[in-house]
Write a structure and sequence with these properties.
The protein contains five helices and two strands. By secondary structure, it is an alpha+beta fold. Strands 1-2 form a two-stranded antiparallel ribbon. Helix 3 crosses helix 4 (53-65). It binds zinc ion (ZN).
Length: 112
């Protein structure tokens, strides 16, 4: 199948336009259950976001620094892994963001 440069469907999504959704996505999952780095990379991959550990870990640390996530060590077989949960502050920030996302979604998808 040939692609012309006018075929908008063949354009890759521009990460700069939606990168702000990634921390929101992480916070959403951390509010639901404890998350860990590699599991989150897989989860984001399922949604079509390719993110490397070198990008995800600083993001997790940033959310932790803001007080949105709290990290604890969890035993995983013979090793320990760091798991993250959303704090009360993180849940509040998530709720506030949902209002913004809902508004944007409405405008983008429904033209309202
Ligand atoms: Zn998800």
């Amino acid at each position: 199948m040939s692609k012309t440069k006018f075929d908008s469907l063949s354009l890759p999504a521009d990460r700069d336009l939606y990168s702000g959704l990634i921390p929101l996505h992480v916070l959403h999952h951390a509010a639901g259950e404890p998350i860990f780095g590699l599991g989150m990379i897989e989860e984001l991959g399922r949604h079509g976001y390719r993110i490397s550990p070198g990008s995800l870990y600083p993001l997790l640390h940033g959310l932790e620094k803001k007080g949105y996530l709290r990290a604890t060590q969890q035993r995983n077989g013979r090793s320990l892994r760091k798991v993250y949960r959303a704090t009360a502050l993180g849940r509040k920030a998530l709720e506030a963001s949902k209002i913004k996302v809902r508004e944007l979604f409405r405008e983008l998808m429904e033209g309202k």
